[in-house]
Write a structure and sequence with these properties.
Blueprint: H1 6-16, H2 24-40, H3 44-57, H4 63-75, H5 81-89, H6 96-108, H7 112-124, H8 133-142, H9 146-158, H10 165-177, H11 181-190, H12 196-208, H13 212-225, H14 232-245, H15 248-261, H16 267-279, H17 283-292, H18 298-310, H19 314-326, H20 333-346, H21 349-361, H22 369-381, H23 385-394, H24 401-413, H25 417-430, H26 435-447, H27 451-463, E1 472-477, E2 480-485, H28 494-509, H29 526-534, H30 537-548, E3 555-559, H31 565-577, E4 582-585, E5 590-594, E6 597-598
Parallel strand pairs: 3-4
Antiparallel strand pairs: 1-2, 1-3, 4-5, 5-6
Helix pairs in contact: 1-2, 1-3, 2-3, 4-5, 4-6, 5-6, 6-7, 6-8, 7-8, 8-9, 8-10, 9-10, 10-11, 10-12, 11-12, 12-13, 12-14, 13-14, 14-15, 14-16, 16-17, 16-18, 17-18, 18-19, 18-20, 19-20, 20-21, 20-22, 21-22, 22-23, 22-24, 23-24, 24-25, 24-26, 25-26, 26-27, 28-30
Length: 604
Amino acid sequence: MMIRTPIQQQTHLIIAQEDPLQSPDLVRLKEKECLSLLQSCKSSEQFKQVHAQFLKLGLNGDPRRSGSLVAACALSDWGNMDYACSIFRQIEEPGIFEFNTIIRGHVKDMDFQTALLLYGKMLERGIEPDNFTYPSLLKACAHLSAVEGLQIHGHVFKLGFESDMFVQNSLINMYGKCGEVKHSFRVFEKMDGRSGASWGALIASHSSLGLWSECLRLFGDMSSEGCWRANERTLVSALSSCTHLGALDLGRCTHGYLLRNISVFNVIVETSLIDMYVKCGSLEKGLSIFHKMPNKNQLSYSVMISGLAIHGRGKEALSVFSDMLEEGLKPDAVIYVGLLTACSHAGLVSEGRRCFDRMRLEHHIEPTIQHYGCTIDLLGRAGLLDEAYDLIKSMPMEPNDVVWRCLLSACRVYQNLELAKIAGGKLFQLDQHNAGDYVLLSNIYAQAHQWEDMARMRKDLAQRALTQTPGFSAVEVKRKVHKFVSQDKSHPDSDAVYEMIHQMEWQLRFKGYIPDTSQVLLDVNEEEKKQQLSFHSQKLAIAFALIHTSHGSTIRVVKNLRMCSDCHTYTKLISKIFERSIIVRDRNRFHHFQDGTCSCSDYW
């Protein structure tokens, strides 16, 4: 005996009734029942059964009823666009609702080009668009290009929908995703009335382009107006901005805003909070949130493992990975990148090798070039340069620039000129436009006192008109981020900063500090080298923070380059002399300086 689901039972009852065409009242009753069943469909098969009843009742000729069928089939979670299109094609005179629905369905199905083609067909039939037409079309344009978006914007303007808030929000979002943030801002400025979604769309458009400072400024403007509550998407954008800027105080403020306005955090918000705290140097707070999470997903574990990795807490990262496996969650390729990075930063060579093998043999994840890059970095940091080079030669894919750059960086640390030449040559074959590669190899030549080769590298750099992003250090003081570059005198407080540098150096002499002039890779005398070292950006940022923060408070610095050994020694001693905890996030990892020691144990 066949067991029917509730919807099948109801459908069976309809079929079992006498022919409904004999009674108009009964037709209307059956129509209501069918529409009710339509809302209850949980799968394509259930929908087809209800559709059969529409056909049996002769209701398929009415565009309104067919439109309901198209909407249910195209927009539901179990949606079947092929079937929805077949119903749509049978409608003799589809109206604006039916076209809007099928366009929206194609956008939901990621078939953006078809959505635009249907819009063109709609116009050819003389059907006037309405304000529900354009949000879906603009969403499609966001995934295509700004050219289509500009054309649709022209239609919006021509047909008088430019003042509709939903259309305006969609325009802001579309331009932002297409990288045209100026157009996003222009639409926003012209709005007579703005909603929280308007602010959110503008903030998200800046976030997608990495305009983190602007994101926070806009979030501050939105909050100062006091009449809009940020939604979770906007708050995640604000947290992401704090994460990238290393702005912990601003991140804490955003966390406070979340606590005041949202009663229950979802997994995405909690994971964003963890990411913000660990990447702003507050690892313990990130761990606290992580351990209190009632539900963790794969991304939560991935963020926590990566966070522990950049803080050099490799063994803890491996422990969190074990917890994840015990919860029955399967690791993916991204989690293994975090694990290999954790082993690399902590010098856990044996554990890293085991992770690489376990990934392939136990979890059947084929290593990508990123996994090979992490393993080569692991070996290179440990000084196993020949083994790293052998692994590069045995890779099943062609090594990319990241792989060769890992080897080149290790060659600089361990002063292996021969391998550096090989790695540098491969990099120049692969990428003629990275100034950092020329600078790195020229620095290795300088370490070996091969000044002619160094000059040749610098000459090649100039001839190719390549420019290197200058190194900088940023420090947050009183919720404002201050940025410094080496030898910087552009800051309004530069006189006070330079005076503090002199005071710091005076006290460092009593602690036995000797500047490591080997870090100055210029053919100049020792005094000039010492002068160059004195005003590295990290030292300027720390001096500024010492002036403007209270005794005992933590100093947090964010750098865009790897920390040099002289700045590392300097900062260790400063943490002891001034009795400060100093946390520095460089390009690769965090360093926690406390009482004259560093969390990296001088391994970075």
